[in-house]
Amino acid sequence: MNRRILVLAAAPAVLLASSFLPTPARADEASADRVWDDLSGEIRAGWRFLRGEEEGRFFQDRSLQDGPRIFDAVLRGDASKDDAALSSFDLSAHGIGDEESDYRLRASRRGMWTLDSGYSRDDYSYRSTGDPFPYDTIRERSSTHLRYTPSTRLTVRLDWDRSLRRGDSYVGQDTDIRELPAPPGVDADIVQSHRPLRQQSDRVTLGVDAAFDGGLRFSLAETLHLAQVDDTRLYDIPAANRTAIPVREALRREVRSPAWTTVAKGAWSAPGGAFDMTGIFSWTTQPTDSRVAGTSHGYDGSYDPAGVSPRGEYSETTGGGNEVDRKAINARGEAVWRPHRDWEITGALEDETIVDDASLRLTQTRDWVRPDLTPETTRRAYDARITDRLWRASVDGEWQATETVRLRLGEEFLRESLAVPTDTRQADFGPTAFDSNSWRTTVGADWDPSKVYSFSLLVRRGTNDEPHAATSSDTADEVSYRGRWKASDTFSLSTVWRHKGYQHDSVLDSASRSDSFSVGGAWTSGAFTFTPSVTWQIVDTRTDTTFFELNSTGFQKIRDQVAFSSRNLIVNLDARYDFAKNLRGFATLSFIDSGGDYSARWDELTIGAEHDIRKDLSVGASLKSWRLDESGSSADDYTTQGAEVWLTYRF
After folding, report:
1. 165 forms bridges with which residues in the sheet?
2. 3-class secondary structure for 185-238?
3. 63-96: per-residue pLDDT in tens?
4. How many CB atoms within 10 Å of residue 177?
5. Rounded to an integer, what distance in angstroms lies between the CA atom of residue 93 and that of residue 105?
6. For 610-627, how does the pLDDT look when each residue is reduced to its tens digit (9 = 90+)?
7. Spatial CA neighbour of 198 closest among 247, 140, 148
């Protein structure tokens, strides 16, 4: 659905909304016949002007269009009759006609059911620096959540969520030494690669929640998750670029993966709230079927069996696929004990087993252009069982040491047992069957010396003896600090510091570190409101890696290290001022300065005002500016100005 269709579709909706507006009632009209006691809403529509929107990658970053726009539309209603089939609703739409838009409906009937449904759509065009071929990608998300409550102790849940991604990309590829003269207007190292793509994921859940006497609660849910992928890749080096020897590849991959999950949950709370207990059990079955089919035309420079000349051109067909039958069982129990009003102790146990029975069947047939060479057929067949089992145990305690100090201490243990068949892996990838043990210690403190000040500190330290398997590294450190100063009802200041560090050194040396420090505040003085925030980020990563390099003796394995360093300054300022009861102004500034291995500056400035012509009608206008200055990539830079004018009608 394109933007014009969305705008046209919105017009009937606006007319329909206006038909609900209350009309002046005659003196003899019976109020009992009115269904909607309170019907209200607003529509904000106007025009957006842009200049310089074609520069650099502005459309990729902002995805904005100029022209007439319905920026926002909202309609709300509350029924006056208790027995009405629909007691309230809230319908909203934002960005109608833009590449980014969303729509939401919330409706309910008192004490019986609630409905929450939404749809959003993002349409972007991605373009890498110097790449003449854009990548158009559309992402759509839909959801509908229904709650039916026939009694205060019983709730039936029905949820549906869909995520859809589709695009048609033309990506530039580096064709190395095989390519000779490039087509006119195309860089010498670029050749076209076409990739239509569609990915869809649907999740449907039907569940029941029930409450019983004695503090017992129980829920049962069944979920179907269906994932589908249709991925086609077309790669083409014209004959003119290869001394009259073309290279073409076409491959299509289709995946279908339905997963059924059953979840049972029980919870019990002791009278008085001294003890809570929760247990969750889930069972998942997920068969995945992936099929591939493709053709290619290329050139083989290796010599024929007689050693006389290269084998030369060939045509190759590929077909087959793989199947994976996954079964997963997860059981988790948690208990909370409050032996004293100042103490709370939480313990948890978890056991998860995942078994994948996988099979691969692939056939490749190569036909040579030379008539003296026999066609070659290669068949690959693998069968494997991969098992992954997790045991997790944790204990956390919180102690209200004084009226102003609260302490926290916790320990978590994770053991993973992983087995991967050796005939499907290369020896350099490390062991294929092993156990790992991870420990994570948590220490925290909260200090509230007064209503003006509050501070919080949380530290985590993790270790793992086999980082190949578990989700943690050899060592992992996390520190977070929060502080707040509320000087008065008109001024407050908060600070946040976060640190994360990871280290791997058992096989290959790898480490990463990230730090961020933020200061934010709020100042209100009469008609003036100011909310600034400043964030400083530091990111450093490095890791050992290997690659193969062709020399006079063949391919040689080279070990190297890659690293990335970044320093980012992020500033956000938001100011608003009420000149009068019916006139207000606003200004926002966002600024990002990124330095290090990648350097760039972004800034966005908005200045505007809105005036209430009357109680139900307002007029507004704003000026906008966007700028990107990317070091070493001037093709991406842009300086774009824009303006928006609008009318807001409230009813």
Report:
1. 139, 199
2. CCCCCCEEEEEEEEEEEEEEEEEEEEEECCCEEEEEEEEEEEEEEEEEEEEEEC
3. 888 899 999 999 998 887 767 778 899 999 999 8
4. 5
5. 9
6. 999 999 999 999 999 999
7. 140
